[in-house]
Amino acid sequence: MRTIAVDPRTDALIIVDVQNDFCPGGALAVPYGDEVVPVINRLLEHRWLSVATMDWHPAEHCSFAPHGGPWPPHCVQESVGAELHPELDATKIQFIITKGSDPDRDAYSGFQGTDLAKILREKGINRTVVCGIATDYCVRATAHDALHEGFQVLVLEDAIRGVEVHAGDCQRAIEELRQAGAEIILSSDLSFDERL
Q: Region 26-46: what's the mean pLDDT?
């Protein structure tokens, strides 16, 4: 088993879109999406910067099928579906980043049109640990943009779940991220020294 030491001074956890609409019973449910929650909660028990991204769409968003997009309406602003999963320990999350609020622009990445990169740099972060939903869309886009912004990226394979519109989409996304420079690891590979 490999061990990757987490430095809370320079490492940050990015939790992508663990919202009701992406979990079982939601408007755009990802199979087994809620299974990421207990894994993420264990990571939130440690003292380090944690950021959650959230789709935060207006009702007429361009990604919605009634407006010509590919998806059913989901994560509409102020709706229950847009809320973080109730079992996710949101009290341990320092920053919430909302995205996709422009009705005419899609935003899969937590970096697109947000202050996420600025926040991470101001906090002295150089490595991001990415998890959440969905592997083949918002997780992939967020991890890609983190690399593009110059951050090291670790993707937690046991704390992501995907849509799989086409069979193999998740594995292709993971391979794409690996080739782009991300490390694909398990949450159990992370080691925390609580003295730091």
A: 97
Mean pLDDT of 94-120: 97
Domain boundaries, the chain: 4-192
**138 labelled catalytic:** yes
Percentage of the chain with pLDDT > 90?
Answer: 97
147 CA to centre of own chain? 14
62 counts as catalytic: no
Q: Does residue 99 have an active-site annotation?
A: yes
Name the CATH code of domain 4-192 (choices 3.30.70.100, 2.40.50.100, 1.10.260.40, 3.40.50.850). 3.40.50.850
State what percent of residues in the chain have pLDDT above 70.
99
Please identify which of the residues 23, 75, 99, 145 carries the catalytic annotation.
Answer: 99
DSSP 76-126: BTTSGGGSBPTTS-GGG--EEEEE--STT----STTTTSSHHHHHHHTT--
For residue 108, which of 37, 13, 12, 17 has the smallest C-alpha distance? Answer: 17
pLDDT beyond 80 at 196: no
Helix, strand, coil % in the chain, rounded to nearest 5: 30, 25, 45
> How far apart are alpha carbons 121 and 31 in whole angstroms?
34
